[in-house]
Design a protein that fits this description.
By secondary structure, the chain is mainly α. The protein has one domain. Helices cover 83% and strands 0% of the residues. It has five helices and no strands. Helix 1 packs across helix 3, helix 1 runs parallel beside helix 4 and helix 1 runs antiparallel to helix 5. The mean pLDDT is 96. It comes from Ornithinimicrobium pratense.
Length: 160
């Protein structure tokens, strides 16, 4: 890799983490609270529609990009092949990977479970309150991981 790319990669990974974290912060701060104010049927139907669009949205670029680029940065930092603060770069990479794992292991299965329910069913009505509470709580975690990752990667970068 060229030295210019090695200087830019941590910044790009960090920016992707901050962008994804900011987008997901909107869910914690106003989307989920607004959905909880709706009747259960409307809330479930709306979240099902959101979850259907999300995997094909532009949000996937920074969300997946932060994990992919962060992984490369972390690996290069571990073998001392990238300039910058090694501890911050490896930490930022780990946080980006943790955010991706949180999405894949926690949010996706719950979203899939919600998608399998008829929004007007009693099963959906029973599932929604717990889903909304725990999904949002873990989204707070995911946002913190992404924003922290971004800060660490950018701070650890040697780019001016």
């Amino acid at each position: 890799m060229t030295s210019q790319l090695l200087n830019i990669l941590p910044l790009a990974a960090g920016a992707a983490g901050v962008l994804a974290g900011g987008a997901l912060f909107s869910f914690s701060s106003f989307v989920m609270p607004a959905l909880r104010d709706l009747d259960v049927e409307s809330a479930v139907h709306a979240m099902q529609a959101i979850n259907e669009k999300a995997p094909r949205s532009a949000l996937m670029v920074p969300l997946l990009g932060s994990a992919a680029a962060g992984s490369v940065v972390g690996a290069l930092a571990l073998v001392d092949r990238i300039p910058g603060d090694r501890v911050l770069l490896v930490s930022g990479a780990g946080l980006a990977i943790a955010a991706f794992v949180t999405t894949a292991a926690y949010h996706v299965p719950r979203n899939n479970a919600l998608a399998s329910l008829d929004f007007s069913s009693s099963a959906a009505a029973a599932y929604w309150p717990r889903y909304a509470q725990t999904w949002t709580r873990m989204n707070h975690v995911r946002v913190a991981l992404l924003l922290s990752s971004g800060v660490f990667l950018i701070a650890g970068s040697s780019a001016p």
